[in-house]
Amino acid sequence: MACDLSSNNNKPSFNQVTPSVSTSVVDIELEPEGTNYSKRGQWLRAAVLGANDGLLSVASLMIGVGAVRPDPGTMALTGLAGLFGGACSMALGELVSVWAQRDAELAQLLRDYEAHPSPARALEDRKRALPSPMCAALASAAAFAGGGGVPLLAAAFIKPYNARLAAVLVTVTVALFAFGWIGAILGKAPPFRSSVRVLVGGWVAMGVTFGLTKLVGFTGI
């Protein structure tokens, strides 16, 4: 039956109870259309993982080399070389990877445009929305360098070997736990369990690097 909106019986009364609307629904409706929180989460998670990689890589190198060359200069130079090399490697890998992804997505856009023509401006907007290889490369390098700088700063001003080694281990332990916690929150995983997993994995990596390098040092190579 069709409703007659002009009838008084169909007009809403101010005495009627209006159904409440969830605040979350209202917030979602008021959010800008251009905001993409899923992509933002992916970038944040990638940044945390890149920083964690830099932290563990540089710390393992410093501890490993420090097992046979305990002087502070050698450890610092080793850490710097690992930071520079790792950041460049991460940037290059991200550049190549995102370029390949961009080319594939662009080819698909052009195929869709040829099959279903649309205004040229719409195509240009979709092209601009594609990931930027240069931005991805810079972000990856910055994340790696930020994580790798933690053990370097921890050991930079400490002369005694044992104190320097302890400072690196303590700082890296705290940072690994924090990175694991943040990564778990971004990935909607249990924070404590994920942090412990990252921490134990980092300890194993540093311990293996230290032990194997020490073993090589004993051989006199």
From TrEMBL:
GO terms for molecular function: iron ion sequestering activity; iron ion transmembrane transporter activity; manganese ion transmembrane transporter activity. It is a multi-pass membrane protein. Vacuolar Fe(2+) uptake transporter. Its main location: membrane. It comes from Spinacia oleracea (Spinach). Belongs to the CCC1 family. One of its GO terms (biological process) is intracellular manganese ion homeostasis. Signal peptide: none annotated. Keywords: Ion transport, Iron, Iron transport, Membrane, Transmembrane, Transmembrane helix, Transport, Vacuole. The chain crosses the membrane at residues 46-68, 80-100, 136-158, 164-186, 198-218. One of its GO terms (cellular component) is vacuolar membrane. Pfam families: VIT1. It catalyses: Fe(2+)(in) = Fe(2+)(out). It is found in: Vacuole membrane. This is Vacuolar iron transporter.
